[in-house]
Every structure is written in structure tokens, then in C-alpha cells.
Specification:
The protein is mainly alpha-helical. The protein has a single domain (about 15-300), classed as Ammonium transporter fold, CATH 1.10.3430. The chain is about 70% helix and about 0% strand.
């Protein structure tokens, strides 16, 4: 129960990145409680619970591609659209790159707990998940930096961290079902696809997803779910299934049904929840609060006290 609770709290934390710097704390707290009960819990049961319809369908999600990443990414997208853009969204730059590097390293380390721990024991499947998680993260860095280098002519440390997260997200649903060789391709393509999601998709549709919850987690989780349908093999995990490249194309269809269903359910219910919350409390910080900063205006504190 406590292990599952860590998945639930992490998913809510991922959502918060999408609307950073503009959502009032009271609305965030109410939304998170309602969302955890009405959205996260049903999706988690569908995928992992006894009698869950996605589980009974035969779709695979080893450690939360649907449950954690697609659900948080889609919800983040909904909230970013409903709340609108930050005033200075165009000019905003990363706040502190050293802290970002530290955070990325901690995320990479902690991810082993989620992916390896999802085997619920220490066996060969857990060890495959361990190798696949690390390998996909490394391949994700390469995939992101290759595209960034080709397009912008400069590979960046922020891009490397984003690529690592992209690879980690992409391998999450497949970690205990695919070979290490497959994890390289899944991670590499995860890095390239999420780069497209973070830059092209966001610019094309004009929403302000501050920490790219949808670009990294929504799109990365979607690719990971599809990749599971392509690369899963019973030679790695007898409790799984064979994917398209191992003789069973039906797994791709099952994965797509699970993904589309999650998108629709999460998107619709999240939209309803935020609209209901908006009836009772202000959701968007006002212009003055946003300009001064929510740390000071809503919480009475700031990160740095300068001389």
C-alpha cells in the first residue's frame, strides 16, 4: 500500500509542473485531492487492480506509463490550457541549472525504485528492468542531444537532463517486458520524440506548459506504451505477452485502446474537476500576485535572501 502511495503522490507532483507560477495554492490543494480520488485511482485500478479492464484486456504497463505519465501529462495539458499562459512565458528561462542537474540525478536514481520495484520481488525480471531503465535513460540523452545539436547547433546540459527523463518515461511501461537491446531503441526514440513534443507541439498549439509535463510525460508515456506493444517478449517475462516484432500484432491494438481510453477519461474528468473547483475558489493568481511571485504573495517566503 505504501509503495503504491508513492506512485500516487509522484503523479500529482508531475502535474504541478505544467501550471507553475500561476495557480493559487488553495485551488491546487483541492484539485489534487479530487483528482487523486476521481482520476488517478480508477486508472490505477484499470491497469493494476484485480478485475481492472485494461489488465483483463491484456494491455501491458509495467511501472506506470498509463497510470503515472500519460495521466499526469494529459492533466497538465488540460490545466495549462484552462489557466492560460504566464505573463512572461516567452522570456522565462531555467532558474538554476546546477539544481536541475541535481534533481535530474535524483530522479534517475529514484526511478530504479519504481521500475525495478514493480517486479515486486528480486528476480530476473527485476534485473532486466534495472538494466533497461538505466540503458533507456542513457539512450534518451543521446537521442535528445543528436536532434538538439542538429537543429540548434549546440547540445545543452538541460537538453541532456530532458533526454534522460524522456528515456526513463518511455521505458517505464516496457521495463519488465523487453530486452536490453530494445530498451536502447525505446530510449533513443523517446529522446527524439519528446524533443519534438516539447518544442514543435507546444509552439504549434500555443499552450504554456512550464515544465513540459505533457511534452515529456504525456508524449513519452504514449511512445512507451506503443513501444511495449512492439517490443514486448515472453522470453523476458513469461507473465507478459509477445509484441508485434515477436509475432503478435494484437498487443499493439490493445496498447492503443488503453492509451486512447486513458487520454479521454483523464482529459474529460480533469477538465470537469478544475471547472468545479473554479466555482468555489479562485484558480488563477491575479496579475499582481504573478508579477511579484507566488512564493511571496501566497506563502510569505522566498527562496533566496539577498544582502
Amino acid at each position: 500500500m505504501m509503495y503504491q502511495l508513492t506512485f500516487a503522490v509522484l503523479t500529482a507532483a508531475l502535474i504541478s509542473g505544467a501550471f507553475a507560477e500561476r495557480m493559487r495554492f488553495s485551488a491546487f490543494a483541492i484539485f489534487t485531492v479530487l483528482w487523486s480520488i476521481l482520476v488517478y485511482s480508477p486508472v490505477a485500478h484499470w491497469v493494476w487492480g484485480v478485475g481492472g479492464w485494461i489488465r483483463n484486456l491484456g494491455a501491458l504497463d509495467f511501472a506506470g506509463g498509463n497510470v503515472v505519465h500519460i495521466s499526469s501529462g494529459v492533466t497538465g495539458l488540460v490545466l495549462a490550457i484552462v489557466l492560460g499562459k504566464r505573463k512572461d512565458a516567452v522570456s522565462t528561462t531555467p532558474h538554476n541549472l546546477p539544481l536541475t542537474i541535481l534533481g535530474g540525478a535524483l530522479v534517475w536514481f529514484g526511478w530504479f525504485g519504481f521500475n525495478v520495484g514493480s517486479a515486486l520481488t528480486l528476480n530476473e525480471v527485476a534485473m532486466d528492468a534495472f538494466i533497461n531503465t538505466n540503458t533507456a535513460a542513457a539512450a534518451g540523452i543521446i537521442g535528445w542531444l543528436v536532434i538538439e545539436w542538429l537543429i540548434n547547433k549546440k547540445p545543452t546540459m538541460l537538453g541532456a537532463i530532458s533526454g534522460a527523463v524522456s528515456g526513463l518515461v518511455a521505458i517505464t511501461p516496457a521495463a519488465g517486458f523487453v530486452t536490453p537491446a530494445s530498451s536502447i531503441l525505446i530510449g533513443f526514440l523517446g529522446g527524439t520524440i519528446c524533443y519534438w513534443g516539447v518544442f514543435w507541439v507546444k509552439e504549434r498549439f500555443g499552450y504554456d506548459d512550464a515544465l513540459d509535463a505533457f511534452g515529456l510525460h504525456g508524449i513519452g508515456g504514449t511512445w512507451g506504451g506503443i513501444a511495449t506493444g512492439l517490443f514486448a517478449t515472453k522470453s523476458v517475462n513469461s507473465a507478459g505477452a509477445n509484441g508485434l516484432f515477436y509475432g503478435d500484432p494484437s498487443l499493439v491494438l490493445k496498447q492503443l485502446i488503453a492509451i486512447v481510453s486513458t487520454y479521454l477519461f483523464v482529459g474529460i474528468v480533469s477538465y470537469i474537476i478544475i471547472k468545479v473547483v473554479k466555482v468555489f475558489v479562485p484558480v488563477r493568481a491575479n496579475e499582481q500576485e504573478e508579477s511579484i511571485g507566488l512564493d511571496i504573495t501566497l506563502h510569505g517566503e522566498k527562496a533566496y535572501h539577498e544582502a
